[in-house]
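Recap quiz, item 2
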Amino acid sequence: MIGRVLKSTGSWYQVLTDQGVMLECRTRGKLRLEESKETNPVAVGDLVLLEPDGEKGIITEVQPRKNHIVRQSTRKTGHSHVLASNIDQALLLVTLIQPRTSLGFVDRFLVTCEAFGIPQILVFNKRDLLDQEAIDWCYDVMAVYQKIGISTFLISLTEDEDIKSLEQYLSGKITLIAGHSGTGKSTLLNRLVPSAHQVTAEVSGSTMKGVHTTTFAEMFAVDDQTMIIDTPGVKEWGLMDMNKGEISDYFPEMREKRLNCKFGSKCLHLEEPKCAIRESLEHGEISISRFESYLSMVLGGDNRK
Ligand SMILES: Nc1nc2c(ncn2[C@@H]2O[C@H](COP(=O)(O)OP(=O)(O)OP(=O)(O)O)[C@@H](O)[C@H]2O)c(=O)[nH]1
Ligand SMILES: [Mg+2]
Ligand SMILES: [Zn+2]
């Protein structure tokens, strides 16, 4: 039997078999030991081989993954957690307030997706909480991302009667939803899959941050072809291990320009002479906020802001 993992708690897995049956499964001890640095051997989205075990199932093998996205702990514990596998795209759900999402966080997430070859959608939620000035600022920020090929949206999941323009981008695909706690990931999921009844909770009145309501990643079907993965809110987004020289490769607006730097792929775009990236920055072709994010990644700045 073969199936797809819809939910993983670390000790048991909810698997949808190719016969359309939902099975609660466990793994064999062996499967766990074989795994290296990642804390979870089986991730949401994995295609797995199963053996029946009474009313339940045993996962005997994880099929090779088309792709996966890893959440790296920012503290140097070396732990990494596969958030999900075999996805078509990642939707980053952010809010300017309640909670605040920084552009540094956005860019670290986008760079990680680029490194894993996963297309991204950037959605600003809770428009209803913004005044006109903040909305104007948000559109300026969205323009920066649109320019580098990322689809962006500004929505209010509680006020907008329909979110069809966004839904079009999800249709027929497997989409992972990520973001800080409290940005409305589960609220979005419930709008897409009303039968899911995912629990949502108000952000804390004192910290204006989410209260970590969703605790496990879980995949839901919108229709036969469309799947959505709701995930627990992340506080920080650490960059996976990558060479400093590699980072600008994951900034789409730098990828080609960097070939024109005098020092070619050795240029880190810091103080080097005849740097095509810094020239583009001066000409306004690369946005200052994106370049600042780049610098903090190369110089190893604070990953938590
Ligand atoms: N004002 C406003 N509130 C919203 C909007 N969308 C969601 N919310 C509220 O924000 C709160 C948090 O929403 P959740 O869907 O639980 O957030 P989450 O991202 O799933 O949070 P975690 O599961 O903790 O990661 C809830 O009270 C939602 O009703 C919006 O567009 N505007
Ligand atoms: Mg949630
Ligand atoms: Zn350069």
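The chain has a mean pLDDT of 92.
The longest helix spans residues 132-147.
End of item.
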